[in-house]
Amino acid sequence: MPFVASAEGFRIASLHAELTRKGPGLLLRDIERGKDEQIAALQQIVQSVAPDILLLTKVDFDAELRTARALQRALGFDHAFALPPNSMVPTDLDLDGDGRKGDRQSWVRYAGEGAMLLLSQHPVRLRFHMNDLLWKDAPNAQMPMRASDDPFPSIAAHEALKLVSIGLWVVDVMPEGGAPLTLLVFQNQTPVFDGPEDMNGLRNRAQLGLVRAVMESVYGTFPTKRFAVMGNANLDPARGAGDRGAIAAFLADRRVQDLRPQSALGGEATAFWDKPGPMRVSYILPSAEWQVDRAEVVWPQTGLLRTAAEQASRHRMIWLELRPPP
After folding, report:
1. The domain spanning residue 31 has which CATH number?
2. What is the pLDDT of residues 15-30, one digit of tens each?
3. Collapsing DSSP states into helix, strand and coil, what is residue 307?
4. Residue scoring higher pLDDT (16 or 277)
5. Secondary structure E strands in the chain
6. What stretch of H or E contains 308?
7. Whether the predicted model's global pTM rises above the 0.85 cut
8. How far apart are CA 78 and CA 123, in angstroms?
9. Burial grade of 297 (CB within 10 A; 0-12, 13-18, 19 or more)
């Protein structure tokens, strides 16, 4: 059963779900067959947390939203919201400097790979999204350059490259009889897997800067209360590659509170890789006035739920229970 809070409260959760396959349509096939171990593990985690709002990042997308609707049903939510990711947007350019033209706005193996999906027990309404913003037009834009101070990979790429690699949306979740909760949801570029030009690192930093600019109403009206920022920043405050100053500024923003959710096993870590090990890369930051009753990472020490968490993804679900102030 979904969580039901009094006094307009919410239980919100996020997971970098790694629900991708080797080609388009295969995730939908696996959901409909009802025998996939990863999806069964995700169902177990969702049932244990029982959020009424769940953001899944890195989920395959199709234009008809068949995969989104199938996951909505499989995980027991009343509403599903998704927008086409920038991994759907083709160009006739070389955007990553590998010498091959025809790149999409995000590196993927196939169109729609690794998108975002918002599931909710309440209706969801889009305010605006930032998927179309060109990187060159972003605040304080610093784009990758060669050692010779030439644009990397080309002037044409600088003119066409969007800042958002997958998605950044601002939506309202509309509970019946209650005030809306505004969500800023995002999925950032990983800051690694590039060369000395640091293209991915610069894009990750700029995407974090865009989140803060959106909160400052640079691109559209953003509320001062009753909001939460959530998603995968792909950046740890203390470990790994990337601009740790950018994530430190993001977490220190006085408009939000960082509850630093903990797990039984992994502390603040929300993901685990063989190298570099456990890291905190996914976040839920509610606006400063919310009372937070619980803030947790689903990573038990033992038992079936730990097995499910490890089967579902290399990442772990984070969740918060919010109540408005008295």
Report:
1. 3.60.10.10
2. 999 999 999 999 999 9
3. helix
4. 16
5. 10-19, 53-59, 79-81, 115-120, 124-129, 167-173, 181-187, 227-232, 271-273, 277-279, 282-286, 291-297, 318-323
6. helix 304-312
7. yes
8. 8
9. buried
In this structure, the chain runs to a length of: 326
Is residue 1, in this structure, part of any structural domain at all? no
Q: Classify residue 116: in a domain, yes or no.
A: yes
Rounded mean pLDDT, 171-185: 95
Average pLDDT over residues 249-260: 95
| Residue numbers of the domain that contains 243 | 10-323
**Which phi-psi region, left, alpha or beta, contains residue 6 (left: φ > 0; alpha: ψ -120 to 50)?**
beta
Q: Please count the structural domains in the chain.
A: 1
Residue 173 falls inside a structural domain: yes
Mean pLDDT of 190-202: 91
The rounded distance, in Å, linking the Cα atoms of 150 and 171 is: 38
Q: Whose CA is closest to 13, among 76, 70, 61, 64? A: 76
Burial class (CB in 10 A: 0-12, 13-18, 19+), 155: exposed
Report, in this order, helix, strand and coil percent for the chain, each rounded to 5.
25, 25, 50
Cis before 2? omega within 30: no
Buried b (16+ CB within 10 A) or exposed e, 256-281: bbbbebebebbebbbbbeeeeebbbb
Instruction: Kindly give, in sequence order, each residue whose CB lies less than 8 Å from that of residue 34, ignoring residues fewer than 6 positions away.
Output: none
3 assigned to some structural domain:
no
- Name the burial class of residue 156, with classes exposed (0-12), middle (13-18) and buried (19+) by CB atoms within 10 angstroms of its CB: middle
Cα torsion 240, 244, 248, 251: sign: negative
